[in-house]
Design brief:
about 400 residues, D-Maltodextrin-Binding Protein, domain 2, 2 domains, globular
Length: about 400
């Protein structure tokens, strides 16, 4: 029997949406709105040598960033790229928290990580937190304070999941695309998405056309009894249109390849991969859809088996330098919680950001709600039903 959610879950979901929309994402990302804050960044690292083993999303540490870090600190990074939160959790469970110094869970995963006891708290006296957007840094104390031991999570990269398309092959019908465009007959055989998130966003589209009630997809986080009838409808709707989907992705490279080489003209994607292609001159656009882009903050956590403690804190300090963070977002196309990082990014980044979030888009973001283990298990059940159909 899958454990039911606690009665406080609906309030948690509501508060997550308000918190993220107004305090985290909008205020953290208006380009040019921030000036660098916080302590001076240490130029010569205290750890003049050593290694650091990092398990992180596959495109978050560009080669220039890695080279600058090693040149400045003398620390070599052994970087293992991943494509999903499930990969991170499964590796850590299999290794019993050993083998890596830093892992990168998404902000809404705290309910799953807490009971595993595979992470250790940060020593915040060694972290230049005043260099980071305060609403984002507060997530650690709010959602990742396990057993009253303090924050087990620090913000690293934020971004969204919306709609990307080939500008030479397709144009949205209105001012903004819709999640429904990914499933439409018009684009049949030329679209892509990640199964669990494209199914949730299909539900958001279904709310707009009267096939679900407004707010149903967020109510599904309340309990198993609430979730199942909603996801049954969504799953049946998606299965009926599965043949319209050309490609299912689970990492950044598959998204890029789909748009460039696999005949995909429109897809539900993260913001970073299409932004990087657009910066490189490819005919790609990414934009928040009319239903609202899905928003997330990926963080940094320290497993219980971390060995290179001094090197870990050198990496945090280096990453929270606005210049270093700005160079990184210029390359991978996502966004940084570091105050003033956007000022060190190029004009292409600023233009991409403005194109992606026109008008009131930042006020219309949908932050991923906190995800309890019971919810993840049931969602996987419906995703597998869709994939095997």
């Amino acid at each position: 029997m899958i454990e039911k959610s606690q009665k406080s879950a609906p309030a948690d979901v509501k508060s997550a949406k308000t918190f993220s929309r107004r305090n985290v994402l909008k205020t953290a990302t208006a380009v040019g709105a921030f000036t660098a804050a916080g302590p001076a960044i240490v130029k010569n690292a205290r750890s003049a040598s050593g290694e650091l083993n990092i398990l992180m999303w596959s495109d978050y540490l560009p080669e220039p960033f890695l080279a600058d870090f090693e040149n400045e600190t003398g620390i070599k990074i052994n970087y293992t790229g991943i494509g999903s939160n499930e990969e991170i959790i499964n590796k850590m469970k299999a290794n019993k928290g050993q083998g890596f110094d830093i892992v990168s869970p998404t902000n809404n995963q705290g309910l799953e990580w807490g009971p595993l006891e595979l992470l250790q708290p940060w020593d915040l006296s060694r972290v230049p937190l005043d260099a980071v957007n305060p609403a984002m840094s507060a997530i650690g104390n709010k959602d990742w304070d396990f057993g009253g031991k303090g924050s087990h999570w620090l913000p690293h990269i934020w971004g969204t999941e919306g709609v990307a398309w080939r500008t030479d092959k397709w144009t949205p019908a209105g001012a903004a695309p819709s999640y429904g465009d990914v499933w439409s007959e018009e684009n049949a055989g030329k679209t892509m998405g990640r199964p669990h998130s494209m199914m949730l966003c299909a539900g958001l589209y279904m709310e707009t056309i009267g096939e679900l009630n407004p707010g149903d997809m967020w109510k599904a986080y309340e309990s198993e009894e609430t979730m199942r009838p909603i996801w049954e409808k969504v799953t049946d709707w998606c299965i009926a249109r599965k043949n319209n989907i050309k490609l299912l992705w689970n990492d950044a490279d598959t998204q890029k390849n789909g748009l460039l080489n696999e005949g995909v003209i429109v897809g539900q994607t993260w913001d970073g991969p299409p932004m990087a292609l657009k910066t490189a001159g490819d005919p790609i656009m990414y934009q928040a859809p009319v239903e609202g882009a899905m928003a997330w903050v990926d963080g940094m956590s320290m497993p219980i088996g971390a060995k290179n403690i001094d090197q870990i804190y050198e990496f945090i300090t280096f990453s929270y330098n606005p210049k270093n963070a700005g160079k990184a977002i210029d390359s991978h196309g996502y966004n940084s919680p570091v105050l003033g990082a956007d000022q060190f990014a190029g004009d292409a980044y600023k233009k991409n950001f403005a194109d992606a979030y026109p008008g009131d888009s930042l006020n219309n973001l949908n932050p991923w709600p906190p995800q309890a283990p019971w919810y993840a298990a049931i969602r996987t059940e419906y995703v597998n039903k869709f994939k095997s159909s």
